Amino acid sequence: MNTYQEYLQEIEERKTQGLHPKPIDGAELLSEIITQIKDENNANREDSLKFFIYNTLPGTTSAAGVKAKFLKEIILGESIVKEITPAFAFELLSHMKGGPSIGVLLDLALGNDAAIAKQAADVLKTQVFLYDADIDRLKEAFKEGNVVAKEILESYAKAEFFTNLPEIAEEIKVVTYIAGIGDISTDLLSPGNQAHSRSDRELHGKCMITPQAQEEIKALQAKHPDASVMLIAEKGTMGVGSSRMSGVNNVALWTGKQASPYVPFVNFAPIVGGTNGISPIFLTTVDVTGGIGLDLKNWVKKTDEAGNVVRDENDEPIMEQVYSVETGTVLTINTKTKKLYNGDKELIDISKAFTPQKMEFIKAGGSYAIVFGKKLQTLSAKILDMEAPVVFAPSKEVSVEGQGLTAVEKIFNKNAVGITPGTVLHAGSDVRVEVNIVGSQDTTGLMTAQELEAMAATVISPIVDGAYQSGCHTASVWDKKAQANIPKLMKFMNDFGLITARDPKGEYHAMTDVIHKVLNDITVDEWAIIIGGDSHTRMSKGVAFGADSGTVALALATGEASMPIPESVKVTFKGTMEDYMDFRDVVHATQAQMLHQFGGENVFQGRVIEVHIGTLTADQAFTFTDWTAEMKAKASICISEDDTLIESLEIAKSRIQIMIDKGMDNTRQTLQGLINRADKRITEIKSGEMPALTPDANAKYYAEVVVDLDQIAEPMIADPDVNNKDVSKRYTHDTIRPLSFYGGDKKVDLGFIGSCMVHKGDMKILAQMLKNVEAQNGKVEFKAPLVVAPPTYNIVDELKAEGDWEVLQKYSGFEFNDDAPKGEARTKYENMLYLERPGCNLCMGNQEKAEKGDTVMATSTRLFQGRVVEDADGKKGESLLSSTPVVVLSTILGRTPSIEEYKKAVAGINLTKFAPSHKLLAN
Fold first, then answer.
1. Cα separations in angstroms, 548 against 58, 92, 245, 554
2. Computed over its alpha carbons, how large is the radius of gyration of the chain?
3. Lower CB count within 10 Å: N or C terminus of the chain?
4. Tens digits of per-residue pLDDT, 85-127?
5. Predicted local confidence at residue 309, as pLDDT
6. Picking from 511-525, 716-730, 893-907, which range would have the lowest pLDDT averaged per residue?
7. pLDDT: is 842 or 368 the higher one?
8. pLDDT per residue over 749-788, tens digit each?
9. Which of these, 690, 742, 199, lies nearest to 489 by C-alpha position?
10. Beta strands 263-268 and 257-260, pairing class
């Protein structure tokens, strides 16, 4: 069977799922299609023409190369296709977004046929995805006196690719659709358990919200054909949890506009809103697609005549509605006045959604075009030796004389490019920064690869110090979906220049370590900026931002990212931690105490948490910085003492060396380069030349939070509060309860120790507790299953060397086997200890989950509905988040322990301790 016949068979299979033909990305299939097009008598010719014109992916896919070559033949008259005239061929090239199409257009523009050259030049003037090799061709032709090259460069220098675009409509009509009450997780828009299909946009689109919701959206579109459907998080924040480019893609697929008539299932311009706005990480993704994100503020805290907040019997603020966004409400966005209206009635100012920069993203159909366009304008003007006219909104530069810098302000100033020389920037400034470390994870990596192909990138930017492609999200089950997707992803990323968890050549052992742990290890400078394809990109060295797959692609391709410098909230500690408490309890207590100190306002949301931990190594401190995603912070920075930072860098060096010893380094010697940088940084700290990063003493913060360790008297548990009568208060991560709340009798159906929130110390605590229990009871008997997934292989190796793994093996009923990985997800659990392969496991919920309706006690990060556990008929699944010792004891007892049982079980165990630094961690 030839490739085309296999494609036809796949089409028939997709029809049974209600799907259209899958877009073509392979050269072999498209070459067959072109052969059939050339044969006017071929029975498949008509369909082949449709596939060629309307169903081939652009960019740098191998199919795009074949398509561009054939279109060039048509333009030059070497092939005659009556349905594709030379003019139509140029139109098709204009929609191919760089890569081979740019090469073809340059060939034609710089060729000898003047008429063809003019047509090619006219198309090139609309394109922005040009790289150094493309610009070098224009530069050389210009130097040789080529008039067309000069004309193209002049157009670029004037940014006509942007100025000639249609202006944004003054009025945009929207019809509301309430997608959920309370915070809306990106899991609702793009479920983790459907991660395998994310690169197949049409198929993945079917999993958004529910089939019923999709039908309701279609009905609204039919009723209001002149309006865009706006998805809303009523009484909550839209897009919490992760950037999830696939979530925005799904929203755009159902409610946005088609980007090109010749590229299927790629839509842009989605419109979303939330009573409390849009999660910062998700808003970046909305910008990527040229969308609009509105902070609706349609519910506010009720106040009395004296202006005091009115509270209910639970001391919770009572909310009152300012205006309605009930499903089906028609509203008008005015982009000129930057206000939201219902008819003639003004509802709210929405100017934050229409800053000059965001207006550019909307006009250009997304932020990528602006990033590449600005670079293209600058380079072209330089080649022409002219000053580029001011076309784009100037970057906002906020500089306050006499005001010191927070840690994030210092990092951004150090890494900023293209700013006014000598300017010191403060929060609120728009900055382009160089990126040091980039991470791509395996369930979004295929989309990142697609984005790289779409922006015609072929090799990692030399600016990037190190980049890593993980295999952690597909570590649990090596099923057919993973086998089909992951090897292809690893090869693409390895070829692009990343260090990859799996070796495309099969020479080194697969490393399914949790991506955040690896990124934390390969970050060897606390002044670094890290971009990662996951919301938990929250390193305890440097400042890290979780990002969508597109922003990750942009960082890989250009070595840069653009964003405003965020405000910071300073977190410090006082008091003494009880011996029986674990640092995880301090993390949860921080959130609870912050909310209490600020009357329920989450001052962390959208800001950088500058946490003055000081005395914990990067491994242990990561438990805090990681959780800041659940605090809805934009990022976090850990301030360390010099000696602590040196210790962390030495640990990082040793783990990078293990990766080198495994054979994971590349021809660029990326990993060795990171060790060299760590050595340099250690020398700078020890010599006093450049001590560990600290903020200035006179830095300005949005707020300061002081965590009182003396108030933390018992373990603290993050509760999804699944039965709260106020639906908006469920699944928020803001309900933090003491262990005693549960009275020692809440049934626990399953325990999970794993995810990026745990470190080697947690695994040692587990081993010590099991030995304690056996010593006290004569045996270890589990009354609920305990699933354990160490975050990294390094930790497993260290536990083996130190004797702890042998302890865990003794009590386990299952141990992972890399030589025979699981091929199917586990759906039932026995009351025993499971030692699972390093990776995300239950925390991600894309491969394995707890049994439906279970009450899970876990060390993981997410308690969203359906993430770790789905609901059963008559019982809601719930995932309570706690420290390792609480999880262990809950599975042994089959219920939550009492505080007395807990204290007895942890007696003599080395829990993760923390004592505040006594040094002034500021300049």
1. 20, 28, 5, 10
2. 28
3. N
4. 999 999 999 999 888 999 999 999 999 999 999 999 999 999 9
5. 87
6. 716-730
7. 368
8. 999 998 888 889 999 999 999 998 898 888 999 999 999 9
9. 199
10. antiparallel
Q: Is the dihedral of CA 500, 503, 508, 514 positive or negative?
A: positive
Alpha-carbon distance of 347 to 341, in angstroms, equals 5
Q: What are phi and psi of 699, to 5 degrees?
A: -70, 155
How would you classify the pairing of strands 430-434 and 560-564? Answer: antiparallel
Compute the mean pLDDT over every residue in the chain, rounded to the nearest whole number: 93
Structure tokens at 668: 């660029």
Closest to 807 (Cα-Cα) out of 760, 752, 766, 767: 767
Any idea what the Cα angle at residue 251 is, between residues 245 and 257, rounded to 5°?
Answer: 105
Q: Which amino acid is at 576?
A: T
- Dihedral of CA 202/195/529/606: which sign? positive
Q: Three-class SS string for 631-685?
A: CCCCEEEEEECHHHHHHHHHHHHHHHHHHHHCCCCCCCCHHHHHHHHHHHHHHHH
Phi-psi region of 290 (alpha: psi -120 to 50; beta: other; left: phi over 0): left
Residue 489, H or E segment: helix 480-496
Distances (CA, A) of 97 to 61, 100, 262, 280, 667: 11, 9, 12, 28, 30
Say if residues 63 and 57 touch (Cβ distance below 8 Å): yes
pLDDT higher than threshold 70 for residue 263: yes
- On whether the CB atoms of residues 514 and 536 are closer than 8 A, the answer is no
| Closest by CA position to 497, among listed 474, 463, 528 | 463
pLDDT tens string 293-331: 999 999 998 988 888 888 888 777 889 999 999 999 999
Nearest partner of 418 among 560, 567, 552, 565, judged by Cα: 560
Contact predicate 856/880, CB 8 Å: yes
Rounded Cα gap, residues 275 and 297, in angstroms: 5
Residue pair 892/773 in contact by the 8 Å Cβ criterion: yes
Both structure tokens of 96: 């191919």
Which of 432, 505, 443, 502 lies closest to 468, judged by CA? 502
Tens of pLDDT along 118-142? 999 999 999 999 988 999 999 999 9
- CA 775 – CA 117 distance, rounded (Å): 85
What's the token pair of residue 509?
């052992």
pLDDT at 243 over 70: no
Cα 78 from chain centre: 46
H-state helical runs in 185-238: 186-189, 201-205, 211-223
Percent of the chain with pLDDT over 90: 74
Which residue, 717, 731, 701, is CA-closest to 902?
717
In this predicted structure, the answer to whether residue 437 has a pLDDT above a threshold of 80 is yes
Distances (CA, A) of 893 to 94, 897, 902, 904: 65, 7, 11, 13
3-state secondary structure of 232: strand
Q: What is the DSSP string of 414-450?
A: HHEESPPTTPPP-TT-EEEEE--EEEE-TTTHHHHHH
| pLDDT number for residue 1 | 60
The residues facing 260 across adjacent strands are 263
Q: Is the dihedral of CA 649, 650, 654, 655 positive or negative?
A: negative
Contact 415, 425 (CB under 8 A): no
Q: What is the pLDDT of residues 518-553, one digit of tens each?
A: 999 999 999 999 999 887 888 999 999 988 888 999
What is the Cα 355 distance to its own chain's centre? 23
DSSP 23-76: PB--HHHHHHHHHHHH-TT-TTHHHHHHHHHHSB--TTSHHHHHHHHHHHHHHT
Res. 885: pLDDT tops 90: yes
Q: Which residues contact 89 (CB under 8 A, 6 or more apart)?
A: 71, 72, 74, 75
Output the six-digit token pair for 768.
């010590």
| Sign of the alpha-carbon dihedral angle for 886, 889, 891, 894 | negative
Query: Would strands 339-342 and 330-334 be described as parallel, antiparallel, or unpaired?
Result: antiparallel
